[in-house]
Design brief:
single chain, Helicase, Ruva Protein, domain 3, Dna Topoisomerase Vi A Subunit, Chain: A, domain 2, 2 domains, two-stranded antiparallel sheet, 7 helices, 7 strands
Amino acid sequence: MSAYPQSLTNLIKSLSGLPGIGEKTAARLAMHILNGSKEAALTLADSIIQVKEKIHFCSICFNYADQDPCHICSGLERDKEVICVVETPDDLIALENAGVFKGTYHVLGGALSPLQGLGPEDIRIGQLIGRIKEGGVTEVIIATNPTLEGETTAAFIADQLKDMSVSVTRIASGIPMGGDIKYTDAHTIKRSLQYRTKL
């Protein structure tokens, strides 16, 4: 039986369900929330509810957004002729935080993985091709992760786009094989974008 009151036990259990949060950390966070002001707790709760109610996928790039199209796709300063293809919104955020890319994005929502049953129809390759067919795109930068699945996805996209009038490039080396873009430092991401190569 828990030494905590039931409502506190429930909060600890909920917090420990978050990635990277063990039971001790969850208990520490729960005690912080309990001992903090009611206003701070309500602000936290409201933030969680707002995220669940207001965040959706952008209808153009499929990034997380609270408006449609998202602030990147609707940004007047963005170069709409260049699309950078990434696997996840986390990868997009890592590239944006590097501060060097001024084009637009396309979030696939994963990578090709026959072992996991993920084929071309399970990620947003069709939507990418549709965007290119609409015209106005001159370059597609493939920034999938340098993993077996990411490389397979990059090769597949390059093959699908080979007969279209767009330049297809791949981010350059610098990000280690087997690594994830979202965990890569800004300098490495910058070099990867600057020294991308044609596929």
